[in-house]
Design a protein that fits this description.
The protein is mainly alpha-helical. It is built from four helices and no strands. Pfam families: YqzE (PF14038).
């Protein structure tokens, strides 16, 4: 892509952005924020999310086992 093409593209994008009403720009920005992925996933990928989910599942399983044992003793 030549520099002239790039300047033309950027100019078109800026003009399109400025032609939109302010309310529409705010609405588009809010929609992007609403569909944003979690922080850990955005910055570090899926591995930390998987580790966190694994620990949560283990913690929930252990707490469920504790309550099941308590109920069986009654």
């Amino acid at each position: 892509m030549k520099s002239n093409d790039y300047v033309k593209y950027v100019t078109q994008e800026i003009v399109n952005y400025l032609d939109q009403p302010k309310e529409q720009r705010k609405h588009v920005k809010e929609q992007k924020r609403a569909f944003r992925q979690p922080f850990l996933y955005r910055w570090f990928g899926i591995l930390p999310m998987g580790v966190i989910m694994m620990f949560r599942r283990k913690r929930n399983n252990h707490s469920n086992l504790f309550f099941k044992r308590m109920e069986s003793k009654k």
